[in-house]
Design brief:
Order of helices and strands: HEHEHHEEHHHHHHEEEHHHHEE
Radius of gyration: 20 Å
Shape: globular
Strand order of the largest sheet: 1-8-3
Number of helices: 14
Largest sheet: 3 strands, mixed
Strand content: 5-15%
Amino acid sequence: MILSGCINAKEHEGSESTEKATSRKSLKANSGQPGNLSAESDTIVHTFPIGYMKALDTVDASRIVKISSYKDVLDLYDQLNYTPEAWQAGIREIPRVYLTIIGPRWGSTTSKEIAVLYKKQLFFRGLGPLILRANELILKDRQKLEQIRSVFQQDGTVTKSDRNWIMKLAGLYKMDTGEGEVTGPMIQELWEKVDIVPPSLALAQGAEESGWGTSRFAAEGNAIYGQWTWGKNAIVPENQRKELGNYGIAAFESLQESVCAYMLNLNTHRAYAGLRAKRAELRKNGEKITGDVLAEQLTSYSERGEEYVKTLKVMMEYNILKPTDDAFLIADPPIYLIPVAE
C-alpha cells in the first residue's frame, strides 16, 4: 500500500516515535542521509501523501491546535522559539508545526490587516515545515532506493519485495515499468528523480505563484504552486483561455498534499528534466543543492520564461531565503494547526 500521507503512525506515536529511533537526530535535507529506516513494509512509498486530512482523526487531541487568528499562530511560534529573532541568531532547527489548510480568511482579511513584513514572515514560517517534511519523505524513499541500487550494482540482483517496491516507486514517478523487471537504467532514472527540492526555491515559488497565499486558488483549494490539471479537482480560472482546453488549477485537501504534489511535478515532468540533471550533477560533484542554482532550470514553469526565473532569484535574494536550504526539522512530535472561525 502507499503510505496514507505525510501524517502516519510512526510520526505521531509520541514517546516511541520514529524520530526517537534515530536518537533524536534531525533529518537534514541536503545530506541525503535521513537516518536509519525502521522496519517497514517493503511496499511502502513515502513521497506522495494521500488521505492526509482523514489521518488527522487518528492524531492525539493534544497535538492539534485550533487557531482563530494569526495572533494564535504567533503565540504558538513564540512558545516554540520559532521566531525571526531565533532565525537571525543562526538557529536552523524548525519545529514540526504543520499548517493543514490556508482557508479563505488569510487572503480576504488577515493579509490585508497586517504589515507586509509580518505577512511574509507568517507565510514563510507556515509553509517552511511542510516543505521540510515533504523533503524528508522523499529522502526516506531515496535512502531505500540507495540500498537497493548498491546491491544491484554489485551483483545485478533484487529481492522480490524490493522489486515490488521499485515498481510502485517507478509508477509514482511516471516511468514505464515495461514487463515489471528491474533494470539498471530504471534504477538510475529513479536515482535522478527521487530527490529534494531546495526550501529556498519552494518558498519563493510558493510566494510567487499564490501571491503569498492570498490567491483564490490557495483559499479554495490550498493551491500554492499553480499546477494545471484537467481533472474533477480543478479550480477553473475566471479568465480561462478556451483555446487551451477545459483546464484548471489543481486543488488539494491540505497544504501538505499541495507541497508534495509540487515536488512530484518537478521530479517527474519532462519540462523539468534540466532541473533534475543539474541536481544530479551537484550530487555527483558533492556540491550543495541550492535554490538559486536550480531556479535557472525553471524557464518552462511559467510563460514568462527567463523573466520568471529572474523574479524567483530576486525574491530569494531580497527575502534572504538562501539560509533556508540549511534548515531541518527537529525530532519532537508534530503539532497540527487547524484554522477555525473566530
